[in-house]
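Newbie here. two chains, one complex. Structure please?
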Amino acid sequence: MKYCSECGSANLVRRAPGHDTHSRLTCADCDKIFYHNPRMIAGCIVEHDGKYLMCQRAITPRPGSWTLPAGFMECGETVEQAAVREVLEETGARVEVISPYSIFSVPQIDEVYIMFRARLIEFSDAPGPETMEAKLLGPNEIPWDNIFYPAIKDILQRYIDEKARGTFGIYMGCSEDGTVHFMQ
Amino acid sequence: MKYCSECGSANLVRRAPGHDTHSRLTCADCDKIFYHNPRMIAGCIVEHDGKYLMCQRAITPRPGSWTLPAGFMECGETVEQAAVREVLEETGARVEVISPYSIFSVPQIDEVYIMFRARLIEFSDAPGPETMEAKLLGPNEIPWDNIFYPAIKDILQRYIDEKARGTFGIYMGCSEDGTVHFMQ
């Protein structure tokens, strides 16, 4: 950020406003304070007959790599609506949320993955332009070495392990310290 | 937003970039795209001997009103760290997260409340400058008509009801349609 988006001034400074415990980028001319907050990524683990709905990226970075359908939550929607919308856009599948599965923070890049368990309603439409191919893949068919986001790989692996054990927790964790918590 | 924060131009337009399904504020001069995403509020329900840790706001809007300790998640931290930090800043209490309790969207104002159940470790320090007073209050002592955020009031009421029933779900919901889901 080089210019104040309110007044156009280039006189930006970093300081802690009033009672704030954090310093913020602030316009020294019009006093506008700019807050920068983490973003939420919402998506679904859609299991159907022991297979998992995955999509192959058509866009940069890393086109050709695979991931679970998920994307940035938009303004004006709930987290659940965001997750269902992302699945539809990235795979063409209509799904219904069952329950939250992960709240997974990636503080290095200021993102939080909120992933839901969801059930498939219909899988007939073509995926949107961000996806090459959308497929239901069994655990042995999943291209584990070609999953784009480490957080997505962790969450999916954990889900498959938990399913084998027959119980699902809420997967909380953080990519930084590798600590994960299972809560029911 | 009136000026491009990258090049200072006032030539901002709204358009959908490339494959995007949403229109975005975009600089017509330097092509910078500005994304606006919902923000997360992290906090805790801290129950201790049947009482709940609440704080009375010292700052506008509505100084004097009560709330659960919670605030905007910052960059560089996990959701759990944000929740624990907010409790310390707003009440002076040190707490430990037990489990997630709500993922509650408020799409009208583009916020998501992620509230945790937490246990009290120590409650001896004074609260920070945003708080007049921090107190443990029993259900009958809580100033129900003077709770600042409707979402916080809903979440706390639900928690107390569930505690009486002896089971905690994950409280998902949305202030818009009033629908709530309980998931375990």
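Moderator note: The domain at 1-36 of chain A is CATH 2.20.70.10 (Ubiquitin Ligase Nedd4; Chain: W;). The mean pLDDT of chain A is 89. Thread marked as resolved.
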